[in-house]
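Archive maintenance. Older records in this collection stored only the sequence; we are now back-filling the structure field for every entry so that each record is complete. The fields below show one back-filled record exactly as it appears after the update. Entries are processed alphabetically, and MaoC-like domain-containing protein is next in the queue.

ARCHIVE ENTRY
Title: MaoC-like domain-containing protein
Organism field: Urochloa decumbens
Length field: 321
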Amino acid sequence: MALSASAMASVVNAIDPAMIVSHKFPEVTFGYDERDVALYSLGVGACSADAEDEKELQLVYQRNGQSSIKVLPTFVSSFICKSGSGLRLDVPGLNYDPKLLLHGQHYIEIYGPIPSRANVTNKIKIAGLHDRGKAAVLELETLTCLEGSDDVLCMNRSTIYLRGAGGFSNSSQPFSYATYAANEVSNVTFPDSTPSAVYEDRTQNSQALLCGLSGYLDPLHSDPTFAHAAGFSHPILPGLSTLGFAVRAVMRSFCSMEPAAVKRISCRFLHQVYPGETLVTEMWLQGQRQSRRVYYRTKVKEHGRAVLSGHVLLEHMFSSL
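Back-filled structure field:
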C-alpha cells in the first residue's frame, strides 16, 4: 500500500539504534494445554473441509489410543503473542506508527517434539535493525524453553517493517545490525516444472476472529475501523495464520501429517488475505529422502495473486503422495 506524504510525515522519525539494539526484554513464562493446541489447529483450517478427516482429527482429538493430540509445528508461532503486545513493541528509542507496521517475513526452527501441554519461557532479543530509507526493519528473535530449563524447544524470528520510520542514519552508510549469519536467510527460487503437489483450502468468513483466540489480537484482524485506517477494505487474516494453512498443505502432501518431520519453516508475506478467500498452495519437493526441502507458494484462487512463499525443511519424512 502506498503511503501519502501526510501519512509519512505523521510518523515521528526518532529512532535511536543504540538504545534499541541494547534493549533487554524480560523473560515471559506462560502455560498452554491441549485446548489451546486444538483451538490453534482449527484456526488454521484443520478439519474444516471434513470433520471426520483421519489425518487431521489427531490434531484436535485423542482417539485410537493416542496419549495426547499432535501439535502442528506452526503452533509455536503463537508463542510470540504471549510477550506483551506481540509484534507491537514498546522499546525505548523505537518510535513508529502502529498502523504502518507490517510483518514481512518469519522463520521458525524446531529442535525437538513440541509437547501438547507445557509451561514454557520466552527469551526475547533484538536480532536485527536496518535502515531501508522509507522504512525501518526490525528483527525480533524469540527462544522458547521449558520452564526452569535451558532446553530450547523452538526459535521464532520475526521480520517487521515499520513504514515511515526509516531514514534514521546516514543514507550513504545506512545502519544495519544483525546477530545471525546472512546465510541463514535464503531467497526462494521456484523451478519451472509442474508443482509436485497442489492443495486447496477455503478460509471461513470468521477465520481471523477464530485465529484471534490463539493470541493474534492485533485489531488489524478484527476491527473494521482500524483495518480501514490502515488501508484495507476489511480486517485481514493474520500472516501467521496463512502460514499455518500453507504448512498444513505441505504436511498433508509430503509427511503424512507427522509434525516431527518438520524442522525449519521460512516464509515471506507478499499480500494480504481476506477471510473467506480460497488458498491454493503449490509445492515443489527437492533433496534426498532423509532431508528434503519443500518450496511452496500460496495464492488466492479468486484473483490469482501470490500471498505467501517460502520453504519447509523435512527430515525422515514419509511421502503422502
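Update note: Residues 1-12 have pLDDT under 50 and may be disordered. Residues 239-254 form the longest helix (16 residues).
Entry marked complete.
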